[in-house]
Amino acid sequence: MRRTLAVGDHVEWNSEAGRVRGTIKKTITSEIKFKGYTVRASKEEPQYLIKSEKTDHLAMHKGSALKKLRKAVAHASSKRAKRG
């Protein structure tokens, strides 16, 4: 079953620093350059531009690397970040 991701979805992915959460800002469906790398995206296998919740860092990932979060989970994590 293919997972559907869209702009505005809250997602989580694994990075060198651990698990990161963010929001999808754009769906990429054609080849582009991003931070000096060639991103080979297509309509069949899109990639996603994501903004980290904590650092505002922009990242590009395939859908298979992302875990879609329920809104309540994403909202709770941002509340914790504001308190700490």
Note the beta-strand portion. 35-45%
| Average of per-residue pLDDT values | 86
Number of strands: 7
Cα radius of gyration in angstroms: 13 Å
Structural class: alpha+beta
Q: Give the low-confidence spans.
A: none
The outline comes out as globular
The level of helicity is 10-25%
Count of DSSP-assigned helices: 1
Give the neighbour order of strands across the main sheet. 6-5-2-1-7
What does the model show?
The structure is a single chain. Strands 6-5-2-1-7 form a five-stranded antiparallel beta sheet, with no helix packed on it. Strands 3-4 form a two-stranded antiparallel sheet. It is α+β, with helices and mostly antiparallel strands. It has one helix and seven strands.
List the helices and strands and how they pair.
Elements: E1 10-15, E2 18-28, E3 32-34, E4 37-39, E5 47-52, E6 58-62, E7 67-68, H1 71-83
Antiparallel strand pairs: 1-2, 1-7, 2-5, 3-4, 5-6
What keyword list fits this structure?
two-stranded antiparallel ribbon, 7 strands, alpha+beta, single chain, 1 helix, 15% helix, 5-stranded antiparallel sheet, 84 residues, 43% strand
Concise structural overview:
By secondary structure, the protein is an alpha+beta fold. The protein has one helix at residues 71-83; strands spanning 10-15, 18-28, 32-34, 37-39, 47-52, 58-62, 67-68.
